[in-house]
Design goal:
Blueprint: E1 2-3, H1 14-25, H2 39-56, E2 63-66, H3 69-83, E3 90-94, H4 99-110, E4 114-118, H5 128-134, E5 139-143, H6 157-166, E6 170-174, H7 186-189, E7 193-197, E8 208-212, H8 238-276, E9 279-282, E10 292-297, H9 302-308, E11 313-314, H10 330-335, H11 339-342, E12 345-349, H12 356-370
Parallel strand pairs: 1-11, 3-4, 3-5, 5-6, 6-7
Antiparallel strand pairs: 2-8, 7-8, 9-10, 10-12
Helix pairs in contact: 1-8, 2-8, 3-4, 8-12
Length: 371
């Protein structure tokens, strides 16, 4: 079985597993405890916080551990909007955001906030001019993802941040897909908040992080103890936090090498599929994650194609987070892809463990099923 769905989730890195093992077998203490059993867990959480911070160019005190990308996005968007409500009630986002952002913005609308959904161009790019035009005196937050999970298009977040900050508006970005694939630096992006999902970079599911600029005040969306510098209550998930820290350290160390592997295998897959099937690329040809390949297969059904290679290739029809029945995803719709192409959309995403031989076998199987 050939796994080409790394944007959905990644396998655990062996270094991550080994880093976690002592906290599964031996060091079970609560890091908030004042006795010796809490010492190792406390140090481990601090070390993981440093590793996450180093990966994204932040200060350790600006890293808040969460249960994953969805919670990170919820905390950033809802926490910022509610905290800034005395200043305004308008939020700007894009039409191709992950449901963790779009549904959170929809929930804010039910609270009385106003939300503007920006369109994207044919490559899936948010136009900075559209952000500027959408700004109002009541705008308090812009949230635009760093890179899209379906098509891989990398957004001009730095330029968007500059425009928003010139008007005193906060900026959040959902960066679930980017750490470990491309450089991520909060200072260069100019963002106030940035969400990370552990299971997208070879750490476990159920852990994530949120970068929050040190002087920024968010309203709590959960209530309890004073963990995470008073920002996020609940006893720390030491085991998985350690895993996330290890994954971030590996991602920082091996970024260039892994990006080359992912880009090579992605491009090889594209070359082989284009040679044997009628395909159309979705997303930007260059401003795109090095591992992501979204293709439309003309006059076919994505679910049927995946079913035909079910025992050979693992990939996604549309977005993996809400797949099951195939309909044209909101992202593909936003690109304006004609229906005879759109219904045959598959997303392939390679990873650092993907080999050229696997790609060759996968392409053969998919082309045979397509024909």
């Amino acid at each position: 079985m050939i796994y080409l769905d790394y944007n959905a989730t990644t396998p655990h890195d062996l270094e991550v597993i080994e880093a976690m093992r002592p906290y599964l077998e031996d060091h079970f203490g609560n890091p908030s405890s004042s006795h010796a059993f809490g010492d190792n867990p406390k140090r481990a959480v601090a070390a993981a916080r440093r590793a996450v911070a180093e990966l994204i160019g932040a200060q350790p005190k600006e890293v808040v551990f969460t249960s994953g990308g969805t919670e990170s996005n919820n905390y950033a968007i809802v926490g910022a909007a509610r905290a800034r409500k005395p200043r305004g009630n308008h939020v700007i986002t894009s039409a191709i955001e992950h449901p963790a952002v779009l549904n959170t913005c929809a929930a804010l609308e039910r609270e009385g906030f106003e939300v503007t959904l920006l369109p994207v161009d044919a490559y899936g790019l948010v136009r900075v001019e559209d952000v500027k035009a959408a700004l109002r005196p009541t705008t308090i937050l812009v949230t635009v993802m760093h890179a899209n999970n379906e098509i891989g298009t990398i957004q001009p977040v730095g330029e968007i941040s500059a425009v928003a900050h010139a008007h005193g508006v906060l900026v959040h970005t959902d960066a679930a897909q980017t750490p470990g694939k491309i450089p991520v630096n909060v200072a260069e992006l100019g963002v106030d908040m940035l969400a990370i999902a552990g299971h997208k970079l070879y750490a476990p599911k159920g852990v994530g992080a949120l970068y929050v600029r040190s002087d920024l005040v968010l309203e709590h969306i959960m209530h309890g103890g004073g963990q995470e510098g008073g920002r996020r209550p609940g006893s720390e998930n030491v085991l998985e936090i350690v895993g996330l820290g290890a994954a971030c350290a590996v991602a920082a160390r091996d970024l260039d090498t892994n990006a080359r592997v992912m880009r090579r295998t992605r491009d090889l897959l594209h070359e082989r599929l284009a040679a044997g099937a009628e395909v159309r690329l979705n997303g930007h040809p260059e401003l795109r994650l090095p591992n992501t390949l979204s293709l439309c297969f003309r006059n076919t059904n994505a679910a049927a194609l995946l079913s035909a290679v079910y025992d050979t290739v693992a990939a996604s029809a549309g977005s993996a987070c809400h797949s099951g029945t195939v309909s044209v995803s909101p992202v593909i719709k936003a690109l304006g892809v004609p229906e005879d192409w759109a219904m045959g959309t598959l997303r392939f995403s390679t990873g650092k463990f993907t080999t050229d031989a696997e790609v060759e076998r996968a392409a053969e199987a998919i082309i045979a099923a397509y024909r």
